[in-house]
Write a structure and sequence with these properties.
The protein is α/β, with parallel strands linked by helices. It is 34% helix and 18% strand. This is PqqA peptide cyclase.
């Protein structure tokens, strides 16, 4: 079956499933030109694992039938991406195509709806303000509306711990079909009943964060005993409830040697995707600028990804690794550059609008009015710091020296 990525009178691109992997095909009179211009975007989809296909005649379990009912026949490629095709995915592709011509939109927005959290993570991006800030339901809904109007296709509820926010399901239901709703959580409070309630409200995917595949190390980084067991139980509960589940790992020198153990754990818990993002010196970790991966550690990570994704080495479907799809954040940043202020936007519990959750520079506040997001985005896009493709800005010495006095 073909899943359309993009289509107009002059250019079409589709994803086909071939021997258990994706295959991108394109055609049209402008195909030779556009294939070159969007080659990086196309390579992201080509010859990759995917999560599952939504098909009426498939043997899909009943718990995932709600995705078929909601989106129809489509491909679930990643927990980070809307079904292909879908209204949200179509908007995202158009945005990506426009970015090739220098026009950017805040495609992915993280909304920190509350500062409250039962964890005390050593590397938390939220600074130690201890003022118990949170956005009101009205402010959150206004933020959703403004972000979608500005081009957002992925609205991710974040914290703190968003599961502790009363009325979370109502906020999730407010996300329109032109975007998908995601959620970041430590897993605390993620019972089966809560997961089922979130799914029924329209939650598309949920990401449960892990600092280590080992209980003692994970709890140490979280600053609270017993969090690992709650996170593991949360993954199982979300899977059982029929949600798309992603295990989210902050990759750092202290856990990069545990890659295979993370993979094993994700298999045991039944996660659909295993995502890695490199640790960023921000928030409580702001001064740890030297705590980054070495070239050898990056090479080890790339080898790990190739081993399990088997990029370009699938002779038939039996050779496909049966484990979860891997979302290799560090490799994606190497290819596409830092996405802060180019594709990402973040809103804090105080309402401040930042280029991403790791860049603590405010360009406006959601409470400034109905055009607050678009106004802030224009300011961000005018700032030359976000106009070039490069690595993480918060790991960039020149950026920190130039903008450090603006850090909140």
């Amino acid at each position: 079956m073909k899943y359309p990525i993009y289509k107009n009178l002059f250019f079409e691109a589709d994803i086909e499933i071939f021997r258990g992997r994706t295959k991108v095909t394109s055609r049209g009179i402008l195909a030779p030109l556009l294939r070159t211009r969007v080659s990086r975007e196309m390579s992201f989809f080509d010859n990759q694992k995917y999560i599952f296909e939504l098909m009426p005649d498939s043997d899909m379990d009943n718990e995932h039938a709600n995705y078929l009912n909601r989106y129809g026949s489509s491909l679930i490629f990643s927990t980070w991406m809307a079904p292909i095709p879908s209204p949200a995915f179509s908007r995202q592709v158009k945005s990506r195509m426009m970015s090739g011509f220098g026009c950017f939109h805040p495609e992915q927005v993280t909304l920190s709806i509350t500062e409250e959290c039962p964890n005390r993570c050593l590397h938390c991006a939220l600074p130690n303000k201890n003022n118990h800030s949170k956005l009101s339901p009205t402010e959150v809904k206004d933020a959703i509306d403004q972000c979608v109007a500005a081009g957002a296709t992925n609205i991710i509820f974040d914290g703190g711990e968003p599961l502790g926010y009363a009325g979370l399901e109502d906020l999730i239901s407010h996300v329109p079909e032109t975007a998908v709703a995601g959620l970041f959580t430590s897993g605390v409070g993620l019972t089966f009943e809560k997961a089922k309630s979130l799914k029924d409200a329209g939650l598309y995917s949920i990401s449960v964060s892990f600092d280590s595949p080992f209980e003692e190390k994970h709890d140490h980084m979280r600053g609270v005993a017993g969090i690992f067991k709650k996170a593991a139980a949360g993954v199982k509960n979300a899977v059982s409830a029929g949600l798309l589940v992603n295990m989210y790992v902050v990759l750092a020198p202290y856990n990069v040697s545990d890659l295979e153990d993370f993979y094993r754990l994700s298999q045991e818990l039944g996660a659909h995707e295993l995502s890695f993002y490199e640790i960023v010196p921000t928030g409580r970790w702001l001064d740890n600028t030297s705590d980054i991966l070495t070239k050898d550690q990056h090479a080890a990570f790339e080898s790990f990804v190739r081993r399990h994704e088997r990029d370009g080495d699938a002779k038939d479907s039996q050779n496909i690794d049966s484990g979860p799809k891997i979302f290799p954040g560090p490799l994606i940043v190497q290819t596409f550059g830092c996405m802060a202020g180019r594709q990402w936007l973040h809103i804090t519990p105080e309402g401040n609008i930042l280029p991403c959750s790791c860049v603590p520079i405010s360009y406006g506040n959601i409470k400034d009015g109905k055009n607050a997001v678009k106004t802030a985005w224009k300011k961000i896009r005018k700032d030359p710091a976000y106009g070039k493709i490069g690595g993480c800005l918060m790991r960039d010495k020149d950026f920190r020296e130039k903008y450090g006095d603006k850090f909140e």
